[in-house]
Amino acid sequence: MSIILRLTMAFLLSISVSMAATAQEDAPLATIGIAKLIVDDLAETQQFYQSLFGLQEVMRIDHDLDTYEETILSFGSGTTLALLAPNDKVEKPLTKSRFPVVLIYTPEFEAILERLDTMDVSYSIVPTGASGPKVVIARDPSGNAVEIYGTSGEYAVGGSKLIVDDRKKAEAFYQRVFNARSGQLFASAGVYDEVLMNFTEGGTWLALFQPLAEKPLSKSAFPSSTFFTSQMDEVKRRLDQEAYGYYTVETPDDSLNIIIAKDPAGNAIEVIAR
Fold first, then answer.
1. Residue-level pLDDT at 127
2. C-alpha–C-alpha distance, residues 170 and 219, integer Å
3. Is the pTM of this model over 0.85?
4. pLDDT (tens digit, 9 = 90+) per residue, 189-198?
5. Which residue, among 136, 163, 140, has the nearest Cα to 51 in the 3D structure?
6. Do the Cβ atoms of 234 and 176 come closer than 8 Å?
7. What is the H or E stretch that residue 239 is in?
8. Distance between CA atoms of 188 and 137, rounded to whole angstroms?
9. Residue 171 C-alpha from the chain's centroid
């Protein structure tokens, strides 16, 4: 083999190794595991989601009822939906945004409308044109707005939505801490500015939604979204470089490694080592 050929092969190998290392460094450090909603009446709100979508409870967290009670609902696979009810002695019910905080896909859009008509909840159909997607915004019994999107696929929790006061600032935070990738941008002049942050290819996304016609509302001390990570030490290292802080959660199981962090908008986010 000639010297030139050997040098060329060595050069190409070094490039491929460098590209692989860069791709690994740039890979998202977490996935969206749970979309969380803060609720006022856990029993009534749980009944709403189970009756409307067929979600089923897969876990109940009630080891500290003086602080909160939580249920985890699932379609059987994919991202789950958590309903978390703070104890009134810890946190009083907060005013909810009129904008959606979770998106759920349904293959039974017309059936969903029929079920909504039988429930004591408000909803509105979003005009998208004859050839556009079918979308309805409904309010659950706790006042959370849920976006329901008609699809030909299966029922699924499509995305967790966080209300932020500065979309670009929040976007940069999730890029720095989790290597999240900015996806589609949506905007309506004077109404809202939104970006979808992708954590896995084709997986559940995180929407950062900035209302432009709604004053910032008080944030719950409890998390509004849960991330799973296999690189907790690196996530903590990056959070240490941010100005928003985090703390370790005391759990009844010592094997659990959970932290609660804050994003620039004041949203509490839960990170669980997996």
1. 84
2. 15
3. yes
4. 999 999 999 9
5. 140
6. no
7. helix 232-240
8. 17
9. 13
